[in-house]
Each structure stands twice: as C-alpha cells, then as structure tokens.
Amino acid sequence: MNAIKIDNMVKKEIHTVNNYDEFNEYISKLSEKKAKVYFMFTGKKKENGRSWCIYCQMAEPIVKAFIGELQKEIIFVYVDVGDRDYWKDKACPFRTDARCKLMVIPTIIKWKGVQRLEGSQCTKRELLQMLFEDDD
C-alpha cells in the first residue's frame, strides 16, 4: 500500500492497494474521517504499466485528471483486482464481497454510500462530477 498527498490545501489523498488482502486491511483501518472515501477498482497493471483491462486503460487518465482538478477533501484509493483469470473467476472475492459487489471493472464506489460508476461511466466527466458532489 502507498499513499501520496497531492494537495495540502484540501487534504486530498491518493492510495493504492494491490490485492484483496490489502483492500481488507485498508478497510479495517478506515476511521470515521471527515473526508469522503472513494475506491476505483481496476485490473492489474502489466509490465508496461497499463492494466490488462482496456476499459480501465481508457478510464484511468480521465479519472486521474479529474481527481487532480477536484477541489474537495477526499481520499481516493486505486484497488487492483488482480489479473484477468483471477478477476473472471466467479468466486473472485471482489465479486462476492457484499461491501463492493463488483460486476465490471473499472468501478468507482463511494464508500458507505450507494453511489457508483461502472464500466464506461467512469470515462464521463459529467458522471464523475455528480459522483463527487457533496451531499451534505
């Protein structure tokens, strides 16, 4: 797991977890912070630094740019769901875990909420904007 603070003015944090065990560990350490927590689930990166999932490849630069421009206090966590065979297995824990219930990747979820973007929705800035709007 790693963390990078990218904007001290709004306390935006970016983290990466590399598998299901790290995901569980990260979740167990989440406190009731003021910042909203979002998870983006993507396919494992290949040697070239790009995901095996073409849809994840298309969404990642759009999401990364959007998060970089966002002026809100958030925690954003990239979650690696594994290689293609692991992900495609119907018993993949990311699919069966009631906390995330993934059906497709990429998926972005707002933690402890019902909001989510799936597949090609992750490439649409207007949908990203709606997902990240404050509901306070």
In the predicted model, the low-confidence regions spanning at least 5 consecutive residues are none
Terminus-to-terminus distance: 30 Å
**Rg value:** 14 Å
Main sheet: strands, sense, barrel: 6 strands, mixed
What series of H and E elements makes up the topology? EEHEHEHHEEH
How many domains, in number, for the residues?
Answer: 1
Proportion of residues in β-strands = 15-25%
Family: Belongs to the thioredoxin family.
Protein name: Thioredoxin domain-containing protein 17
Main location: cytoplasm
Subcellular location: Cytoplasm
Short summary:
This protein is α/β, with parallel strands linked by helices and 136 residues long.
Care to describe what's here?
The chain has 136 residues and is α/β, with parallel strands linked by helices. The chain is built from five helices and six strands. It has helices at 20-29, 54-69, 84-88, 93-96, 125-132; strands spanning 2-7, 12-17, 36-42, 74-80, 107-110, 116-118. It starts with a strand and ends with a helix. The mean pLDDT is 88. Residues 17-134 form the Thioredoxin domain. Pfam families: TXD17-like_Trx (PF06110). Its main location: cytoplasm. Belongs to the thioredoxin family.
Output the keywords.
136 residues; alpha/beta; Glutaredoxin; six-stranded mixed β-sheet; 5 helices; 32% helix; 24% strand; globular
SSE inventory with pairings:
Elements: E1 2-7, E2 12-17, H1 20-29, E3 36-42, H2 54-69, E4 74-80, H3 84-88, H4 93-96, E5 107-110, E6 116-118, H5 125-132
Parallel strand pairs: 2-4, 3-4
Antiparallel strand pairs: 1-2, 3-5, 5-6
